[in-house]
Amino acid sequence: MASTVMVKVPRIKLGSQGLEVSKQGLGCMGMSSNYGPPKPEPDMIALIHHAIASGITFLDTSDVYGPHTNELLIGKALTGGLREKVQIATKFGISRKDGKMKISGDPKYVRAACEASLKRLNIDCIDLYYAHRIDTSVPIEITMGELKKLVEEGKIKYVGLSEASASTIRRAHAIHPLTAVQMEWSLWSRDLEEEIVPTCRELGIGIVPYSPLGRGFFSAGPKLIENLSEGDNRKTFPRFHPENLESNKLVFERVSEMATKKGCTPSQLALAWVHHQGDDVCPIPGTTKIENLNQNIQALSVKLTPEEMAELESFASVDVVKGDRHVFMESTWINSETPPLSSWKPE
């Protein structure tokens, strides 16, 4: 396995507006929601403190995680002078009512969501504020206009989009510069490479891959599903359905074989592949265990040749991986377009 000597986490510039973050971030969602019941608060605060002490300073949350409880957790974890040591990214736009998801990019909603997140996080300014999903009923120019105002008022420093199409990214960036685009990117989720990555690089926008370990698949393989607790929403993802998992386990087996040769774990190998995409890329693997966090940091020391990168990619090519990367109900808001600005009639 990879050396247990602590690796120094480098710093990178994310985007071209001045935001500097650790080269690897920490996705905080699973501490409070989505992946089974909330984890004990003292343990999660200890984990966040350990991450910061280890050099990971980029914390990713959203108002919908919990909902609200993940932001509250981070607010509690950052008391006592720690706020100044981190960059906080949070998101707005997804709400759940009566079990249904609603996406909103309306200016009033954007402002109210920002004010509420500031209170829960117990901070004066959000470092990076993303639209979590794109509202297909509101022109992106209208949503960005409000975000621009929030920057001017000092309530947020930098703006991002999550799961946006290339043309939406261009339209948004023309209103106010985007610092980052957050997308799923891992060995087996690569649909952003054709249009979104080149668009971000052309415009000087950083890329923040979420689920860089395939929602835990590259950590545990097919046995991940056997060990999921009640209420873990990964059970609903198509790639984890039994008919797809049988094929997908071959992907994990091949990655595991290569990891053994490299002297690292499969998850370190998969994460190293994401890191090797460039210095404008900052993955945010999530975890609820200090041991896993340490392993994820070790991935920064795994070096891959272009030949090894290509070999890894062949293990998880589009024709090999079975099942969509997201659940059906989310598909409406993946890479979707907003209407033209000329069509907008405010209420």
Automatic annotation (TrEMBL):
GO terms for cellular component: cytoplasm. Coiled coil: none annotated. InterPro entries: Aldo-Keto_reductase, NAD(P)_OxRdtase_dom_sf, NADP_OxRdtase_dom. The keyword Zinc does not apply. Pfam families: Aldo_ket_red. Keywords: NADP, Oxidoreductase. This is NADP-dependent oxidoreductase domain-containing protein. The keyword Chloroplast does not apply. GO terms for molecular function: oxidoreductase activity. Residues 25-315 form the NADP-dependent oxidoreductase domain.
